[in-house]
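#dry-run=false #mode=assembly
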Amino acid sequence: MDANKVPDIVVSRLPIYLRALNRLAEEGQKVISSQALGDQLSISSAQIRKDLSHFGEFGKQGTGYVIEYLQAQLRRVLNVETVWPVVLTGCGALGRALANYPDFHSEGFEIVALFDNAPHKIGETVANMCIQDVVHLPEVVREREIKVAILAVPASAAQKTADILVEAGIRAILNYAPISISVPPEITVQHIDPAVYLQWMSYYLESPD
Amino acid sequence: MDANKVPDIVVSRLPIYLRALNRLAEEGQKVISSQALGDQLSISSAQIRKDLSHFGEFGKQGTGYVIEYLQAQLRRVLNVETVWPVVLTGCGALGRALANYPDFHSEGFEIVALFDNAPHKIGETVANMCIQDVVHLPEVVREREIKVAILAVPASAAQKTADILVEAGIRAILNYAPISISVPPEITVQHIDPAVYLQWMSYYLESPD
DNA sequence: TAGATTGTTAATCGATTAACAATC
DNA sequence: TAGATTGTTAATCGATTAACAATC
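#status=ok
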């Protein structure tokens, strides 16, 4: 029950459960069993029950889980009951697409400031925000106590930008740059690299010819 | 040694090894030990050696791994010795950013056709390709024997588009839509959802208060 | 009540690590 | 040769699953 001891792999499944529940709620469903949820996600019912049991008892025997209640509990566990402000660094095509991503707010995040270092981009408006010079990033992060950043700069600028983010007080970085970055161990980094996922999938393809 | 029996989790690490090796090669390094590679990736040296041993003996005692040779072996194992043609569905902001992603080709993939269903987008040129009506997708996929697709459509169109892709003969889908899709078991799907990764990271943040 | 499903225990399964002989 | 590092074995560690009493 001690949240400090919950395995990473269990935590990593909770957002996936939450996403499925959000969808079911939208469709008007009120209750779901671990079996039915597992069928949707290709996960065993036992695993779902075990995962949830790390955090409390959220279901009812004979009935299953009340979706609205379980959503609220998972949001609480995942720390997304409120909305985290997020800074986005790098306003190229990918950064702009992310700035306009519609679902962040409902999932607990809101991009509140955009940064770049290209003079011709600074001052431009994207998603109703003015792109700022990255030299102002530390003061914005400190003033607004921002803990979460999205890194969407080119590979060549990734490590330097990551250093600035960490120095400014950022604690979690979602890294879209196609390169690994080094950060102190207390900083959480999640790397999103389409080439890595494509290569993983191509392993399972039969070779052409 | 039988590749059919290699655990998924081992395969999923190979692209990460390859990315690190590519970087080292660019920096001019010729040889690396499992220890040094592991230090960079926060993975134990034993795990790296064990993972690689599923596929062959690629190192030399006392020396380590010749980077160029190990890159070539990993590319072979991952099935990216040649370049896979890829179709991209959904030419919104995210799709356009992906169409211009510079590193696909060197990693073994090339986007060769863009599709959308919005009449005002069809005919437009993005990344030197003409956006085509999604009704032509099946013939393009069949003619060119395309096996890999990127799904960058809105959530509301994701399942329908996935059905079209599968029906056309696609075997691997990289799904950027913020919704789970159902496909037959022989199709490989990898889901990239920034909200999922952000929520996973927020678990480790101290709550604001 | 009868049927269904949870939460939990114990067993199983699989992945990681430590250690070292082999050998470059 | 001496030092370094692999590939592999066996031990450890941890995650998943099966099963079922509890109970809605």
